[in-house]
Write a sequence for this structure.
């Protein structure tokens, strides 16, 4: 019986004319189109497991699970709105202003029984900033910002760790300020909130990203301030800023493009771990050195620069800072000093989890109890 079935199938196959099957019903396996692609988010996680597993050792499992968990946000109060009313509403949510609740310099505990030294004025935090967060372990969410009575949005939701580079910049009234890689605009908005910027240049190479920056400025900053040309938005190549406006600015923020670690683990869109962007990713440290060098060249002697990323990578953080300082010394005979931010970490350790072993600068690491960051920042003074 089985033999008869086999023979019948063979006869049927011989008589079948597959050439007459319409093209739309034929099936041809297209490997590139039909096989599932390896997601960029998974490539990012594999990369982080290999590199950060070595870099952070026993800390990496905790950082890893925090990166994969929901991020925590802060509410930056808009000083151009009715800020006192907004602050009162945020306090009713049991949130606290982490900036103004931080202990003053004089209240910091001395180490090894020694008296805490007074800090230079240049190390003071940028003033007038108010940012509310929920306490450690509280995973409450802020409601979406709304349009206030003065025609601008009440507050801006952001990773609260992103405010630390602006605070570390230590703006003084009347400063000329450059935000070299400004988009999407959260740090630019924070710089304006200080009320210290005599002029603010906000630059980003991408015109689409500067478009997002313009939208934020229109939503949060009154038109008369924008019209007074206090803010200048440009889309120049930031690497050439030292040639365009050298020795010009009192304060420069260089928040460079990076692997944006948290974004890379959660979003396929614009993910730098896409296979097509491998070369771009490998060239990031070189780009970062060029941007930081340009920022330092654009700074007046005696001025200050803060370099920042939202990456955990020491190749994009400490190594870039050290490499840039060597480059400026060798090629331009410019001396740059890295500022010690130990006191700064102490001011905000109740809100953020800091990595204790940075060679230069400070690094906020994600932690389930305080799931901000990652955010690396390093303050420098151009001496010559």
């Amino acid at each position: 019986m089985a033999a008869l079935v086999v023979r019948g199938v063979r006869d049927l196959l011989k008589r079948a004319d597959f050439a007459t099957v319409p093209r739309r019903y034929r099936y041809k396996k297209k490997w590139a189109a039909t096989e599932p692609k390896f997601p960029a988010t998974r490539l990012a996680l594999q990369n982080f497991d290999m590199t950060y597993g070595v870099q952070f050792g026993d800390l990496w499992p905790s950082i890893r699970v925090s990166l994969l968990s929901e991020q925590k946000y802060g509410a930056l109060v808009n000083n151009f709105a009715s800020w006192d009313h907004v602050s009162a509403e945020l306090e009713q949510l049991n949130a606290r202003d982490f900036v103004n609740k931080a202990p003053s310099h004089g209240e910091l505990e001395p180490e090894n029984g020694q008296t805490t030294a007074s800090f230079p004025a240049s190390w003071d935090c940028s003033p007038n900033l108010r940012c509310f967060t929920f306490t450690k372990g509280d995973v409450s969410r802020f409601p979406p910002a709304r349009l206030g009575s003065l025609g601008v949005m009440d507050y801006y939701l952001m990773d609260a760790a992103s405010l630390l580079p602006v605070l570390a910049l230590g703006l003084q009234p009347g400063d000329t300020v450059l935000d070299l890689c400004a988009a999407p605009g959260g740090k630019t908005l924070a710089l304006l909130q200080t009320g210290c910027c005599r002029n603010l240049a906000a630059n980003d190479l991408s015109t689409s990203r500067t478009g997002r920056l313009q939208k934020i400025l229109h939503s949060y900053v009154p038109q008369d301030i924008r019209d007074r040309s206090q803010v200048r938005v440009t889309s120049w190549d930031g690497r050439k800023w030292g040639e365009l406006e050298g020795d010009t600015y009192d304060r420069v923020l260089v928040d460079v493009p990076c692997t944006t670690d948290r974004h890379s683990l959660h979003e396929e869109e614009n993910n730098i771990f896409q296979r097509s962007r491998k070369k771009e990713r490998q060239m990031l440290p070189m780009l970062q050195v060029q941007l930081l060098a340009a920022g330092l060249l654009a700074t007046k002697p005696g001025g200050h620069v803060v370099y920042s990323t939202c990456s955990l990578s020491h190749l994009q953080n400490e190594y870039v800072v050290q490499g840039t300082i060597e480059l400026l010394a060798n090629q331009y005979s410019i001396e740059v000093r890295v500022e010690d931010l130990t006191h700064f970490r102490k001011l905000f350790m109740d809100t953020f989890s800091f990595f204790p072993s940075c060679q230069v600068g400070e690094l906020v690491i994600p932690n389930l109890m305080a799931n901000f960051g990652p955010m690396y920042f390093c303050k420098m003074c151009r001496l010559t």
Notes: The radius of gyration is 26 Å.
